[in-house]
Amino acid sequence: MLQIELTVSGGPSYVPPIVTIEVPDVAGMYLAEAEATLLSCGIKVSNVRYVSTALPAGKVFGQTVPGGQTITGYQGQLSIELVISSGPPPSVETNPLA
């Protein structure tokens, strides 16, 4: 007796659509607000770096894609990096006796 085995394809793998999104300017926002703003546009924060600046601690100092520019990629997979202020550097006191 001849036996035949069939495998039925489930079709091609799902590929999300390609989208182009204008990046909002989140400079000056606190990190939580910036993340929420970006997520509402479909953009994730992939990395956060902290630098010492004159801005209050926790505020966005920079972003890898400037506000107003567009990014293109698969929906749900767009991301940018943020640079967050860790606050002003500690002041250096001078010692009058030195």
Quick recap:
The chain is mainly β and 98 residues long. Helices cover 10% and strands 32% of the residues.
Commentary on this structure:
With 98 residues, this protein is mainly beta. It is 10% helix and 32% strand. The strands form two sheets. Strands 2-5-3 form a three-stranded mixed beta sheet, covered by helices on one side. The protein is elongated, with a radius of gyration of 24 Å. The protein starts with 17 loop residues before the first strand and ends in a 13-residue tail after the last strand. The model has no long low-confidence stretch (mean pLDDT 90).
The number of distinct β-strands equals 5
* Fraction of residues in H or I helices: 10-25%
The value of Rg in angstroms is 24 Å
Q: Which residues sit in consecutive blocks of at least 5 with pLDDT less than 50?
A: none
Q: How much of the residues is beta strand, in percent?
A: 25-35%
Strand order of the largest sheet: 2-5-3
Characterize the overall form. elongated
Tally of DSSP helical segments = 1
Query: In sequence order, what are the helices and strands, one letter per element?
Result: EHEEEE
Structural class: mainly beta
| Mean pLDDT over all positions | 90
* Largest beta-sheet details: 3 strands, mixed
Q: What gap, in angstroms, lies between the N and C termini?
A: 101 Å
